[in-house]
Design goal:
Blueprint (H helix, E strand, L loop, with lengths): L2 E4 L9 H16 L15 H11 L6 H19 L6 H10 L3 E6 L3 H10 L8 E4 L11 H10 L6 E5 L2 H10 L2 E5 L13 E3 L2 H11 L1
Parallel strand pairs: 1-2, 1-4, 2-3, 4-5, 5-6
Amino acid sequence: MTAVLCDMDGVIVSSEAHWKRHESEDIYPEVVPDETVPPEETTGMYYREIYDYLDDNYGAAISREAFLELFEAAGRQIYGEEAEVVEGVPELLRDARADGHSVSLVTSSPHHWIDVVLERFELEDDFDAIVSAADVERGKPAADVYERAARLAGEDPADCVAIEDSTNGATAAKAAGAFTIGFTGVHSDIDRSIPDVVAENVAELRELLLERL
């Protein structure tokens, strides 16, 4: 294994609980007021595709434009103020790079949210490539983001290790063919049958990743 492909939300930054709160309290009651949508259903998905998912499965009560405004407002608050870096993960990724392995960020977040995270937590120089769902035709759980990240790393997806915290994300990584570590140290709702192994905390993540590399 030579390339590490790492999710952002729930792995590098502790944003998932904040997203759940905003979605369940502020966003989804506006979009589908007569339904209760478990936020876990959409965790890891590209927010511009979530509208179609909600509309197809529940029927949307507001326009796409209004929905995107709600998500943008939440994103500004979460990434600019509420999320925190997951202690130990950036250090682990730096150690992997120091050992000669490429490290790419593979996320459903759009680039303007990614930029806020990288600047706020001083991570701008920590990744060899950055792939957003905005860069591909289909976001997670489709394999597109991971396939693109592997190409940019110059590797076959089978020679990559993915780190994911969500069911949709792990599904995408496995569909691409990457060895997938499920990380539950921040967000514990992942379907554990999907990743190849599961790390409960950063210490276990370090052990499993370095062992695989």
